[in-house]
Amino acid sequence: MIKIANAQFWVHDQDEALAFYTKTLGWEVRSDVTMAEWSFRWLVVGPRDQPGVGLVLMPVPKPPMTDATASEALAELVAKGLGGTLFLETDDCQAAYDELSARGVVFNDPPTPQPYGIDTSFRDPSGNNVRLTQVLEFSPDRH
């Protein structure tokens, strides 16, 4: 069997991202390993109640991993929210919105009813998109 273990976000600053995901969102550190000989840090966080999956907070690569132009271009795309989206689910979107707002998360929009559920979104400090959804009962027959 093959299963998803981790997903990955490019981040501008691993320490800033770590503080956001652990202190603001309340997640836990799954792995924080520095490989000095490679000048590389493997940093993984995840929701406390979901131990089987993590989010790798990967630094935007810099030379010599990639050239300076590509590094700058990727950093700009991430900052604009084009680096990807993480989809989170909750049982109560309004309660999660209220709790995270009180912790300092700045949302893009209030919880809004959609055909699939109640949905809102925010960005992490690097600009990555995070959607938070209270999924409604879904039937493939529903249009």
TrEMBL record:
Residues 3-135 form the VOC domain. Pfam families: Glyoxalase. PROSITE patterns: VOC. This is Glyoxalase. It comes from Pseudofrankia asymbiotica. The lineage of its organism: Bacteria, Bacillati, Actinomycetota, Actinomycetes, Frankiales.
